[in-house]
Amino acid sequence: MNIEHFHVGKPATSISTGTAGLTPDPLNYGWRDYGLRVGIWRTIETLDRHGVLPSVLLNAEVCTRYPQVITAGRERGWSWLAHGLSNSILHTGMTSEDETAQLTEIIDTIAAHTGARPKGWLGPALTETFNTPSILAELGIEYLLDWCADDQPFHLNVPGLISVPYSIEVNDVRMLASTVSGADFLQLVIDQYAQLSKDSFGSGRVMALALHPFIIGQPFRNKYLDLALEFITSQPDVWLTTSDEIAAHFRNTVPAH
To answer: What is the CATH number of domain 2-253?
Structure first.
């Protein structure tokens, strides 16, 4: 679950491209802000109903802007991953010194407010510099989600770091990027599970379901998340778990060469 903060004067994920370049842009900013005002609570209720603990991809600025969300996550024992400062600030174009300072601030802020130092990282819009992995490893990050190249975790070239799958396509953002309806999204989830279940006959596969409260948390979409989780949680071969636990399992069973 991507829990993100957006700045009023910067363009970001938009539902209406016609006003996306305007400052201010009440239409798109308000739509995004709906996620942490309303959509997240609807999504939390659905996750709770099915006993699913999310892996939360957290913008550090959420910690001070929406403390009630952090409290809800701490009460439920969510896993917290670092997801940049804000989704209005892409993680690119920095010197190594500036990036080290920013990543340190992000990780320290999340640790201070959630009570848990994050072990994973997803860049805002999956952005990195060429130095990001090495800096993150030095700061104690154990895995990245940015490199969506496999259905299984794999060791990265930076010693100590692994990649854990994150889905670009089984992702509610597709509802904006194409004509995918809620019903289509439900079928996409079912089809993704069916194939990965077949593929996992000899070894495990990771099925990540990427959610954004300002998208999946809209009233007319929530029932499809409910149906998707009802389906997934009823399957006998599914391990309902977090990215932290997936990374730990892989690290313990597949040593780096």
So the answer is: 3.20.20.370
pLDDT in tens, 48-102: 999 999 999 999 999 999 999 999 999 999 999 999 999 999 999 999 999 999 9
The contacts of residue 10 (CB under 8 Å, 6+ apart) are: 88, 89
Q: What amino acid is encoded at 160 in this protein?
A: G
pTM, rounded to two decimals: 0.95
Instruction: Report residue 163: phi and psi, to 5°.
Output: -100, 130
One DSSP character per residue, 95-147 reads: -HHHHHHHHHHHHHHHHHHHSS---EE--GGG---TTHHHHHHHTT--EES--
pLDDT at 93: 94
What is the residue extent of each domain of the chain? Answer: 2-253
Residue range 9-25: mean pLDDT, rounded = 83
Concatenate the DSSP letters of all residues of the chain into one string: -EE----TTS--S-S-TTSTTSSS-HHHHHHHHHIIIIIHHHHHHHHHHTTPPPEEEE-TTHHHH-HHHHHHHHHHT-EEEE--S-TTS-S-S--HHHHHHHHHHHHHHHHHHHSS---EE--GGG---TTHHHHHHHTT--EES-----SS-EE-SSTT-EE----SSSBTTHHHHSS--HHHHHHHHHHHHHHHHHHTTSS------B--HHHHTSHHHHHHHHHHHHHHHT-TT-----HHHHHHHHHHHS---
Q: Which tops the pLDDT comparison, 68 or 256?
A: 68
Laid out side by side, the sheet with 2-3 consists of 2-3, 55-58, 79-82, 120-121, 143-144, 162-163, 154-155
